[in-house]
Amino acid sequence: MKRKLIAAALAAATSVVLVSCQRSTPEDATSAAPASTPAPAPATAPASETPKPAPTDLEQLAQRLVTQSAAVKEGEIVYITGRTQDAELLENIAVNVRKLGARPIIEYGSDRLSKRLFFDVPEQYDAQPDEIGLELAKVVDATISLDNNMTQNLFEGADPKRTATRGKANEPVVQAFLKNNIRTIEVGNDLYPTPWRAERYGMTLDALSNTFWNGVNLDYSELQTRGAQIKAALAGGNEVHITNPNGTDLKVRVQGRPVLVSDGIVSADDIKQGGAAVSVFLPAGEVYTTPVPGTAEGKVVQTRTFFRGKQVDNLTLTFVGGKATSMAGSGPGYADLKAQYDAVDDARKDLFGFVDLGINPNVTLPANSTVGTWVPAGAVTVGTGVNTWAGGDNSVPYGLTLFLPGSTVMLDGKAIVENGVLKL
Asked: Helix H segments across 33-191?
């Protein structure tokens, strides 16, 4: 339940998507229409990509998701969502939920449905409160969702103002799920194997598929140990200094801020803490924290990202007093990205949001990849806007996520990541 608020607003399948979405991924947080777009005709089904069979035991995975990751107990209600192409895994999850004496609610979606629910629903309903999502937040104990969209430019032509309106209307649902300590397991984490994602990372589809499933199937006890070590270091530190050969040079204080770990398991301690601590993102392997307000200073440069499938180069944010004060970039997707950013009329979008460190040794990208992701050991990610998923209090339904592969991170003058290599 993390980074995908804008996708949730776009799909507006309300509860279908919102209960599994808190944080923004690059494709979602920067994925709207050009600044001026003619009113689109009713949507047709997008071109879909047929996924290859997963090289893993889906029954065993379902059991792990239910018993270990989500810690499902007898009498609970578990909400399961995903796309039809993963029906076998979704149904295996539902069966394993019921085998524990819990009750599954399983709901299928599709790229076609998500697209139609945006383009074919009149604008007058964009601000309509999501009453179903709010009711679900009262009864659901856990959610397990598969982030398996197959189309990278699904909402090409979407009006930025409409996506911003939908995000604002859906913000209370995300807050309700956090407040009610609903355990949330997401499978995907910007690594779900698709041809377009493999091309983006400079990998074959088979290589990405193996990387994804190896990351999902990592021994979670190893991640727990590693995550606890890095959490302790961050919790005892004060100033984080991030640099990168691309020009990134940012300092931010983290002293006294909560530090959370996505290690694949919602533990008893996580349940006791509640809120953002009961979310797991698979492949797992992240340690993250939020800033002391007003302390972020410097510049962040993301060498390459994508917006609705369009390349954005050297996306640059300058921070003064904890706020993004300027944005620059180039490439065919930059103007559209900026249009979406400008359409969000909420000053909270400018606030520096989080620092995230990847710790999963089973997830690796090619050394020459300029497009990063969350979980490889030594990965560095920062962002603006929404940070409730990371233990912060900014619930604005928008965020920019910037991956910084190859970065160096100094904690109070000591290297904890050096040139993309985790040193702890």
From this structure: 58-64, 87-99, 111-119, 131-139, 160-179
